[in-house]
Amino acid sequence: MVKLKSIKELNGHLESNQSPERPASAEGNFYHDRDIDAIGPGMNPRIQRLRKLSFEAEPSLSIERALHQTAFYKAHFGKHSTPVFRALTFLDHCKKKTLYLGDDELIVGERGPFPKAVPTFPELTCHSVEDFHVLNTRDQQRYTINQDDIDTYEKEVIPYWKGRTQRERIFNHVPDTWRQAYEAGLFTEFMEQRAPGHTALDGKIYKKGMLDFKCDIQSQIDSLDFLNDPEATDKLEQLKAMDISCDAVILFANRHADLAEENASKETKPQRKAELLKIAWVCRRVPAHAPQTFWEALQMYWFVHLGTITELNGWDAMNPGHFDQHLAPFYEKEVAEGSLTREDAKELLCCSWIKVNNQTAPPKVGITAKESGTYNDFTNINIGGLTQDGNDGVSDVSYIMLEVIEDLHLLQPGTSVHISSKTPDNFLHSATKVIRQGHGYPSVFNPETYIQEMVDMGKTLRDAREGGCSGCIEVGAFGKEAFLLTGYLNVPKILEITLNNGQDPLTGKTVGIQTGNPESFSSYETLYSAFIEQLNYIVDQKIRVSNYIDTMFAKYAPAPFLSVLIDDCILKGRDYYNAGPRYNTNYIQCTGLATVTDSLSTIKTHVFEKQSLSMQDLLGAVSKNFRGEEKLRQTIVNWTPFFGNDDDRADGIAVQVYGDLLQAIDGKPNTKGDVFHLNMLSTTCHIYFGKVLGATPNGRLAGKSISDGTSPSHGCDINGPSAVISSLTKLDHTRSGGTLLNQRFLPSLLKRDADIKKLGSLIRNYFKRGGHHIQFNVVDTATLRAAQKNPEDYKDLLVRMAGYSDYFNDMNADLQQEVIDRTENESF
Amino acid sequence: MYSQEKCLGCEACVGACEQNACILTSDGIVTNQDLCILCGKCAEACPTKATEMSGEQLPISDIMTIISSEKSLMDDSGGGVTFSGGEPLMHPDLLIPLLDECGSLGIHRCVDTTGLASTELLVQVASKTELFLFDLKLMDSERHLRYTGVNNKTILNNLRLLADLDVDIIIRVPLIEDVNDDDQNIQATAEFIAALPGKTRGVNLLPFHHAAAKKHEKLGHHYDAALLGEPDQKRQLEIVDLFMNFGVSASIGG
To answer: Could you give the domains of chain B?
Structure first.
């Protein structure tokens, strides 16, 4: 077999062969940074100003938290138990942190000293001077930092943390086999730079204030049995830490109240003066007490959100869960009383939305900068869905939220609508109208399927119903579960090493096990067994280290404040990272199902069934990235059954691979008495995974993205959306913790009200047949131009003509140009 | 059908053709239609599908399998099957059993027709169809003859007759600049529709487009509609108003 000599050679080839950068939307990633400054119709001048400020603020780095953290560690490390010590560092920062109270603001509080100023978390991973220079100067996802701060960091922060960070603890431990697989890009590791986090809240913070939680904690302390419970002391320390963290956020809120009063005393405009006094009043009420008004409920959530993302940098950030359901009682009561109007409520919601947008994701260091280049910290607001009692959860607040999304269209927060069989058509229709705008939001989820998923994993029905999606597509029982994503698995890469007997062809290093020379395989089944053997080996490598990392977080980085918010941490006297929650799921996210399916289908069809191609010739062509083999590559691309076309020959392989991924992952024990589950999420990782993957047997060239989530390979679904749905629903979605389907549409297909209704029907149909999630990218002219250049990647693009629809690829250049011109004019 | 931009020039089709009908030229593959027996071997051999067979011959059972796979979505969206063409009424042996089978599955049936067919057949089809998409191109018989090659007598009679039956009809009028978009023709069309028996009929106005150009090119046919175009936006809206004057509701697109 011909081997590539070096990555450099491959890269050299890539540069000449790669298609121009596609917009993020074309990559199936709806978490892209938007370049839109149009202003929606429903915003009042205050919201316009706040939005503009948030939109235009440049992400920057703040070293304040790191300085507080380092000074506190230097002075006090070793004096307390770990949880109490961590709570005290949090308290210390809440006491000293620079506050921000901007003009026009109604909801207050920032993680950094001002909007989009991002703190660092040196206790987890310490940025180097070089990291800062890269962040400060790179073209995309830039974070500014001044030289003085870099110098201070170099002097004060970096020396202390050398050898003490969580990241070093992890990388000093990992076995070589893990490191080789990791470096080859067979998987990523979520927790090497950020805390596991991944939390969404239930409704408890709208019924209890921090003072109430302190009572709960105290009564738990009072009931500790030091005579019979060997863990009583650990529990006491943990509970004391939780208690301190409650004080910390109350103190943080009171400082805001003081600041607001001080500003009010200097304020000359009577209206703003009154607002500042109101802010002060609200900040004295929450989070100490349970909120009583809509405004207080939003501010309550906001302090809780800030507390959790300041304590540690959970990945993803905090998520309010079913926000509309939580807020509806406050809204309805106050509207009935006459103390709140719909406009007031919408303004306050806009203020909260903008607050989320101000919290840019903390930047990573090293290799993972490639993996997830985004400012998005993945707060996802769930709208609609079912209530804990199984009733429809849609309320007026849900509709107002849709308007807020449409008006603001900011990068953050992410939003999702949850469409059950009980969801009114009217809500679905309103949601699809927002989808039509083409920002990728909201994504659409099927509560009936994810409730089954969660019940199957052992949750009670009521806990499952109160759950939903956090971040991207992964689901959990809100307020009761730590559902940790541990990293992505590059499934096509596992096939690649199988086809190279355990070696990574890009480096020549052995990263898997020896499963035999594929040219000696006498049947497709032999090849497939070898693939499964490699899969199991790699998954075990991954899990072994994930378990180690989980333990490290439990030991060194407990999160006492987060633990206050999640059942049953107080009851158990255990930390969120130490099996405190009622449920403790670990997920491994498998990426590239369609790329693997299509590659296996190629081998099965041409090598073993038709026998029109030898394994040697196929692998030879693959290893030279199909150079000089365009005829062979075209034969594969055009004459192989691919996933997404309702063709059982390919879909059967997808079902089998999905089953074996489940087999490899599902039910493997984690360190918290619970288990690992499969997730089919890709976020943006399919791009990174594609970059570390040579050409694949399905005709995909080296370096190109692999398929995202459970979507068909780009441009390979050529039988329309209903065939895609048929293929996708052959997988049993309820057995994983989430599947992902991206569909792209041209605006012309969604122009009329009747078209929007059809989109609604498509969603209803997909969900009736068991789909978990679907999201729509309404494509722009840039995508169409890319489609002209690389028709092969865009075979699925349908265009609505007068009277019928046709594939974009099947039009001549003039008509394509006309479609592009029209699309430009039609953008919503 | 052949698309030169997809062609690698690999001559796989040349090798596969037993009639020696395919030749690679500087303009890509040229098929000698006198020698070609439409066996499809060139298309099977083509790696890029630059050469494709237009259409596919399938038994009724296979067609029904494809239709049935969409049943669930049809139920949720209120959709169904549209038989179009060409002219589906030219293939009654296929059309009628398919309509029957769809009927037995409770699938909504639609027939997209030029209206040029025997009245007897049309009545028979109407008894198995829920909706007709019925083209009405030009009211003046002579002009109709000039542009389509036939006069419109049968078409108009058929439409009048169909309107009397218990079947939904959407009338579709292509809008082609300087061919049928003049006041006289639009008014005559509207008048005719308004005078149809039975309930009020909706009209879809379909502005002319060149989506067919590519197919002509692939088939190696001369595309003789290249100079035709749609009326401008303003005129399209005027035409909607003209229909309104006769109490006929017309919408653009469909």
So the answer is: 4-45 (3.30.70.20), 60-252 (3.20.20.70)
